[in-house]
Hints:
Layout: H1 2-16, E1 34-41, E2 47-51, E3 58-63, E4 74-76, H2 84-94, E5 100-101, E6 107-111, E7 121-135, E8 138-139, E9 142-147, H3 164-176, E10 190-196, H4 198-216, H5 219-231
Parallel strand pairs: 5-8, 6-9
Antiparallel strand pairs: 1-4, 1-7, 2-3, 4-6, 7-8, 7-9, 7-10
Keywords: Hydrolase, Magnesium, Metal-binding
GO molecular function, one term: magnesium ion binding
Cofactor: Mg(2+)
Amino acid sequence: MANDKLHDIWNKFGKRYKAHPWHGINxxxxxxxxxxxxxxxxxxxxxxxxxxxxxxxxxxxRPNKFSNTIPVPYGLIPKTYSAEAMAEFCMQQTGxxxxxxxxxxxxxxxLMDRALPHxxxxxxxxxxxxxxxxxxxxxxxxxxxxxxxxxxYGDIKDIKDCPQxxxxxxxxxxxxxxxxxxxxxxxxxxEITHTYGREEALEVVRRSQQxxxxxxxxxxxxxxxTLAEALNVTV
Length: 235
C-alpha cells in the first residue's frame, strides 16, 4: 500500500515537472529485451552532450576536438548503473582482475534508417548486442540496439545480423574518440575486448539494473521521507 501511494505521488509530480532522464523515466515493461532510452548525441553533433546527473538537463560535456563523430544516435538506459555487478561480469568474461564500474548509467547506441535532428528525446529500442569496453580499468559497456519498428533495422535480432561495416564504424569511434594526435599512447587506456551478441547484452542490462537497484533503489522512499519531514507528516 505504501509503495502504491509513493508510485501515485511521483506520477503526479511527473505530470507537472519534467522527469529526470536517468532516475525518473521507466525503462519499460519489455526490459531487458526492449528498453526505453534517452538519446543525448546524434550524428553530426559538433559537441559531446550528456546529461547533468544532478539536474537531468542535457549539457555540453566538451566540444568535439577532432574529426571523429558518433555514427549513430547514442545515449543512456534509464535506471541503470555500472558498479559491482557490472564489474564482476566484466572480470568474469575477460579473465581480468581489478576492474570497477564507471559509476555511470549504461550507454546505448541505436541503429535506425532515419536521421534524428537532435538529442534530448526518448525512444524504444530492441537490444541486439554490445561492446565490452574497458576505459582506464573501468567497465564501460556499450549496448547496441535497433529502433523498435524501424523500416530497415527493426527485424534484426542479433548484432551478427547488423551491417558489419556500420558496427566497425561504431567500434572505431569508441576506440578513437579520446585520441590525442599529439599523444597517441593515451588511447591504450581504452579497449574493446569483445563484441557480444544479444543474450550477453541482455545479461549486461540486467546487471546494470541490479547495480542501480543497489545504489539508487531507495530513491523514491528517500524523497518521500524528505518531503514528509518538510511537511511535518508521517509516511
